[in-house]
Amino acid sequence: MIPVGTKGRASETVTAEKTAAAVGSGTHAVYATPCMCALMEKAAWTSIAPYLGENEASVGTGLEIRHLAPTLPGETVEAVSEVTEADGRRIRFRITVSDGAGVVGEGFHTRAVIDTARFLAGAEKRACTVCEEVKK
């Protein structure tokens, strides 16, 4: 069982490759929203990983965020996650991202605990279905 209140952290330096202009999510050389989302997910999944079984992992199933302020390349951003709800295999987090000047983004993230082998088998089956459709 994953305890409510479990916290996680992840940080990164904003590089030119992590700007909106570089990833295609905008035209400015500021921290890209998709990169912020990935950092939020990293803070969340790494915080609960120690509680999972040997054949378990977690996957993201939902993300509600607001990107509130720009961050320039060279600055460091940090995401802090906190488990707010743990209902069976569904885990919900509140996440805040900050840089040296304050809050950059905030939101909620949901993850599902999965059986890794079953999950990958399902992905493989899905890929085979797509391949068969393309061949027709």
Helix/strand layout:
Layout: E1 7-13, H1 20-23, H2 33-48, E2 56-67, E3 76-87, E4 90-99, E5 102-115, H3 116-135
Antiparallel strand pairs: 1-3, 2-5, 3-4, 4-5
Key structural traits:
40% strand; Thiol Ester Dehydrase, Chain A; 136 residues; five-stranded antiparallel β-sheet; 29% helix; single chain; alpha+beta
Describe this structure in words.
With 136 residues, the chain is of the alpha+beta class. The chain has one domain: Thiol Ester Dehydrase, Chain A, CATH 3.10.129. The chain is 29% helix and 40% strand. The protein contains 3 helices and 5 strands, in the order βααββββα. The protein has helices spanning 20-23, 33-48, 116-135, and strands spanning 7-13, 56-67, 76-87, 90-99, 102-115. It has a 5-stranded antiparallel β-sheet with strand order 1-3-4-5-2. The longest helix has 20 residues, at 116-135. The protein is globular and about 40 Å long. The model has no long low-confidence stretch (mean pLDDT 95).
The separation of the N and C termini measures 46 Å
Element order, helices and strands? Answer: EHHEEEEH
> Quick one: how many beta strands?
5
Q: What is the level-2 CATH architecture name?
A: Roll
Query: Beta fraction of the residues?
Result: 35-45%
By CATH reckoning, the class would read Alpha Beta
Q: Tally the helices.
A: 3
CATH topology: Thiol Ester Dehydrase, Chain A
